[in-house]
Design brief:
The chain is α+β, with helices and mostly antiparallel strands. It is built from six helices and twelve strands. The chain folds into two domains: 116 residues, Aspartate Aminotransferase, domain 1; 110 residues, Aspartate Aminotransferase, domain 1 (Alpha-Beta Complex). A six-stranded antiparallel sheet has the order 1-2-3-4-6-5, covered by helices on one side. A six-stranded antiparallel sheet has the order 7-8-9-10-12-11.
C-alpha cells in the first residue's frame, strides 16, 4: 500500500534532519525528488512511490560491498535501486515497522563522507536546518476538469483504454500510449496533456509557454500542451490528440 502524502512528508522531515546534521549539506529538487548534496555531489535522494513502486525510501550513496551486505542481511528494508544501483547506491525503506532511523543515520554519514571535501569534513553543520522548500501545487479543479475532458475524448476514439498512475493518466490503443495527462510531474506545478506529434520539437521552439517537452518521453516524438492557463485551445488539443491516436491505428 502506498504511503499517504502526510506520512511521506513526516518521513521526509526526519530524513532532512538526518542529512542536515552533516556540514555542507544542501537540498534541491532533482526530477521532482528531494536531493541532498554537498557542493553538487549527491549523497541522499528521498523517493516517495517512485514510478508507482509503493515505497517511501531514502536512496543512499554506498559502495557495492555495502549494498550487497545490507540487501542480503535485510532484503525487506534494503534494496538495489534503479539507475544508480549499479554504482552501489542502496534503497532504505522508511515506511515499515522494521525501518531503523539510527541505522539510516549511520548509512547517511558514510554517504556524506564519500562526497564531502576536506575543507568541510570537520565543519559545524547548519543549525537549525533551513526550512523545507515551498513546492508548486496544482489546482485540483483544473486537474479534475482536464481528466474529465480527456476521458470523454478517449470514449470517442476506437479501441482506447485508460491507465492510472501517480500524477498521470495514460490513454492507449493497441497497448501503446497516444496521450497522457500530466499533473505536477517533477513538482513543476504544471497540468498538461501530452501527445505524439511530428511537430513536437517545432511546437516547443515556437510556443514554449504553451507547449512543453513531455516528461520521460522522446522529445522528437512527444510534446505536451498546458491546460492550466486562463484560455485553453481545447479544439486544437482534441485535434492533436485524435491525430496521435490515428498515428497508431492507421499503420
Amino acid at each position: 500500500m502506498t504511503t499517504s502524502s502526510d506520512t511521506a512528508d513526516a518521513l521526509l522531515a526526519r530524513v532532512r534532519a538526518v542529512c542536515f546534521d552533516f556540514a555542507g549539506t544542501e537540498e534541491k529538487r532533482s526530477h521532482g525528488a528531494p536531493f541532498f548534496h554537498v557542493r553538487g555531489r549527491g549523497f541522499v535522494i528521498f523517493a516517495h512511490d517512485h514510478h508507482g513502486d509503493g515505497r517511501c525510501a531514502a536512496w543512499c550513496k554506498a559502495t557495492p560491498d555495502d549494498q550487497r551486505r545490507l540487501t542480503r542481511a535485510n532484503p525487506d528494508v534494503y534494496f538495489v535501486l534503479p539507475y544508480v544501483g549499479v554504482k552501489g547506491w542502496v534503497g532504505v525503506r522508511l515506511d515499515l515497522d522494521a525501518s531503523d532511523f539510527d541505522a539510516l543515520a549511520m548509512i547517511v554519514e558514510e554517504a556524506w563522507r564519500s562526497v564531502v571535501p576536506r575543507s568541510l569534513a570537520h565543519a559545524v553543520p547548519t543549525s537549525p536546518p533551513p526550512d523545507a522548500p515551498v513546492l508548486p501545487t496544482t489546482d485540483p479543479a483544473v486537474v479534475a476538469g482536464a481528466r474529465a475532458w480527456l476521458t470523454a475524448l478517449a470514449a470517442t476514439l476506437p479501441g482506447s483504454s485508460l491507465e492510472e498512475s501517480p500524477g498521470q493518466l495514460s490513454l492507449r490503443v493497441r497497448k501503446r500510449p497516444y496521450a497522457y495527462l500530466f499533473d505536477n510531474v517533477h513538482r513543476d506545478g504544471v497540468v498538461a496533456v501530452g501527445f505524439r506529434s511530428d511537430e513536437a520539437e517545432a511546437l516547443v521552439t515556437d510556443a514554449p509557454k504553451r507547449f512543453l517537452r513531455a516528461p520521460y518521453l522522446d522529445p522528437r516524438v512527444w510534446v505536451s500542451m498546458r491546460v492550466d492557463g486562463k484560455k485553453v485551445a481545447w479544439k486544437d488539443l482534441a485535434r492533436r490528440v485524435t491525430a496521435s491516436h490515428r498515428s497508431l491505428t492507421e499503420k
